[in-house]
Amino acid sequence: KYCTCSSLNQAIWIKCSSAKEEARRLLNERANEIYCTARRSLKQIFRRADKNDDGKLSFEEFNAYFADGILTTEELQELFYSIDGRQNNNLDTDKLSDYFSQHLGEYLNVLSALESL
């Protein structure tokens, strides 16, 4: 049998489609691994800031840990309360890890690489 041009194109398209799907799946899997790694690293960082070890950061703990002269106390307070949707003056370290993991951008890979050292 001879292969017609249209059936050959269809076979190539199917192969390319399968390869693209596999590539997407692998990229999503890797992105999820990096996100989880970054989240674990951030949780460890926030546990160091949690001086009374209750799994939450008060504004005082948050401010003491993040005050580095770049952001003012007012800017830190604004950030704290923008994350603390319930306005209960305590941020759960899981919630903080989720928040910062979503805002790491290009630093996500850096944080992931640091954990593997």
Description of the structure:
The protein has 117 residues and is mostly helical. The chain has one domain (30-115): Recoverin, domain 1. It has helices at residues 5-49, 59-66, 73-83, 93-102, 107-115; strands spanning 56-58, 90-92. It has a two-stranded antiparallel sheet with strand order 1-2. The model has no long low-confidence stretch (mean pLDDT 78).
Q: State the CATH superfamily name.
A: EF-hand
Strand content: 5-15%
Compute the number of structural domains: 1
Overall pLDDT: 78
Strand order of the largest sheet: 1-2
CATH architecture: Orthogonal Bundle
Task: Give a topology summary.
Blueprint: H1 5-49, E1 56-58, H2 59-66, H3 73-83, E2 90-92, H4 93-102, H5 107-115
Antiparallel strand pairs: 1-2
Helix pairs in contact: 1-4, 1-5, 2-3
Offer a concise description of the structure.
This protein has 117 residues and is mostly helical. 71% of the residues lie in helices and 5% in strands.
Quickly list its features:
117 residues, mainly alpha, Recoverin, domain 1, two-stranded antiparallel ribbon, 2 strands, 5% strand, elongated, calcium ion binding, calcium, EF-hand-dom_pair, EF-hand domain-containing protein
